[in-house]
Amino acid sequence: MCGIVGYIGGQNAAPILLEGLTRLEYRGYDSAGIAVLGAKNAQVHRVVGRVRNLAAALPKRLTGKVGIGHTRWATHGPASEANAHPHTSEDGRICVVHNGIIDNADALRAQLADAGVTLASETDTEVLAHLIARSGADTLEDAVVEAVSRITGTYAIAVTDTAHPDRLVIARNGSPLIIGVGEREMFVASDLAALVRHTSQVAHLDDGEFATVFATGYRTFTVDESDTTKPATEIDIAAEDLDLGGYPHYMAKEIQEQPESVERIIRGRLDDRFGVARLDGLNLTPRELRGFSRVKILGCGSAYYAGQVGATMIEELARIPADAEAASEFRYRNPIIEADTLYIAVSQSGETIDTAFAVEEIKRKGGRVVGLVNVVGSTIARACDGGVYLHAGPEIAVASTKALTNMAIGFALIALALGRVRDLSNADGQRIIDALRAMPGQIKSILDEGPRIAEHAKEFATANSLFFVGRVRGYPVAREGAQKFKEISYRHAEAYQTSELKHGPLALIDAALPTVAIVPADELTDRNLAAVQQIKARGGAVLAVTHEDVDFGELDVPRIVVPKTEPELDPILLTIPLQLLAYHAALSLGYDIDKPRNLAKSVTVE
Ligand code: HGA
Question: Can you tell which superkingdom this protein's organism belongs to (predicted)?
Answer without folding.
Answer: Bacteria
